[in-house]
Write a structure and sequence with these properties.
- The longest helix is centred in the last third of the chain and has 20 residues, at 306-325.
- The protein has helices at 25-33, 35-38, 133-141, 144-152, 155-160, 191-199, 201-207, 295-302, 306-325; strands spanning 3-9, 14-21, 49-54, 61-67, 73-84, 88-96, 109-118, 121-129, 172-175, 180-187, 214-220, 228-235, 242-252, 256-263, 271-280, 283-291.
- Strand 3 (49-54) and strand 4 (61-67) form a beta hairpin.
- The radius of gyration is 21 Å and the shape is globular.
- By secondary structure, the protein is of the alpha+beta class.
- Helix 6 (191-199) packs across helix 7.
- The strands form two sheets. Strands 1-2-8-7-6-5-4-3 form an eight-stranded antiparallel β-sheet. Strands 9-10-16-15-14-13-12-11 form an eight-stranded antiparallel β-sheet.
């Protein structure tokens, strides 16, 4: 059991959890920054979590849902208040409605996660600050301590599994819900390099091509929220091309961007694409959450080989970044 102590202080309105792990701080830190990893332990064993959003930067936001054995759900959110990379991060933590918005009928808390090296690995200290004694007592009565003990018991397996999250892994798609898919890939390169590769038309035309044998003659990118974009691909030689258009809905350079995406000259429904870039030990974790109108469209698109095409593009991007830094 990683937890070494749990201390509740009614006067200070805090609960402090200390846990130790036989891995370096860097590995433990990354388990919290990567949505694929944190959702494997952020929740009791019988209430696994799914993270629909995880913007690990100051001002960012996370939205997750834990589901019980009978299908019941409990949603929560984090607002990232401060981050000292590799050492600590602070969030406002609270309950959420199904859409990720805060549930004002439940108390919100401030949580500070601190990380330090030990002789045998690393130590994490999680201090929760409650707004009132009533809130502290309410959360304890709801099983907060037992839930954290159960959640922490799962971290050892996650941090020991290096291969599943390494930069050598191909892009992979994970179904989050009936309408959402997350495609993830660690790209060897800095966040700034990857962001630039997505926003410089000359660079985009070099790597965002999918399978070999295609070119991108049209790459019109948005400059600000509300602007539209247009991309068009065509095969080298004979054959018909295709394109996508959409609108920039939200942008926080160089970490997050939200756009719509629609296949040009069709009546296919649009998707919403949320891209988040997170620095990790091996480079940059590119995470794209795609929201489809329904499960049928989701499965149809996945069946086209979308993930394989994205992997080919990411591999091409990684090769270009490696050449640029050589």
């Amino acid at each position: 059991m990683p937890i070494t102590s749990v201390t509740k202080d009614p006067q200070a309105l805090t609960m402090t959890v200390v846990a130790e792990f036989p891995v370096p701080v860097e590995r433990l830190w990354e388990a919290y920054t990567d949505p694929r990893q944190i959702e494997k332990f952020w929740g009791p064993e019988s209430w696994p979590a799914t993270f629909y959003r995880h913007d690990f930067y100051p001002g960012g936001r996370s939205h997750y849902a834990m589901r019980g054995p009978d299908g019941e759900a409990s949603s929560g959110f984090w607002e990232f208040l401060a981050i000292d990379p590799g050492k600590s991060f602070e969030v406002r933590d609270g309950f959420a409605n199904a859409d990720g918005e805060e549930n004002p009928e439940m108390p919100a808390m401030r949580m500070v996660f601190s990380f330090e090296s030990t002789a045998t690995g690393s130590r994490m200290t999680d201090t929760t600050f409650f707004p009132s004694l009533e809130a502290l007592e309410q959360m304890v009565a709801m099983g907060m301590e037992e839930g954290m003990r159960s959640a922490m018991s799962q971290i050892d397996g996650v941090v020991a599994d290096l291969a599943s999250f390494a930069a050598s892994r191909r892009a992979e798609a994970q179904i989050l819900s009936d309408t959402q898919v997350r495609v993830s890939r660690v790209v060897r390169g800095t966040v700034d390099q990857v962001w630039q590769a997505y926003h410089d038309p000359k660079l985009v035309k070099r790597w965002m091509l999918g399978p070999d044998g295609w070119t991108m003659p049209v790459c019109e990118l948005p400059a600000k929220v509300g602007d539209t974009y247009r991309l068009f691909w065509e095969p080298e030689g004979e054959g018909d091309g295709f394109g996508f258009d959409g609108e920039l809905l939200e942008v926080t350079p160089p970490r997050r961007e939200v756009t719509t995406e629609h296949m040009t000259d069709t009546d296919y429904p649009s998707t919403t694409n949320e891209m988040t870039l997170t620095p990790v030990a091996d480079g940059t974790l590119v995470s794209v959450v795609i929201t489809y109108p329904n499960a049928e469209v989701r499965d149809m698109v996945l069946g086209t080989g979308m993930t394989d095409g994205m992997e080919t593009s990411y591999a091409r991007l990684e090769a270009q970044l490696s050449g640029a830094s050589a």
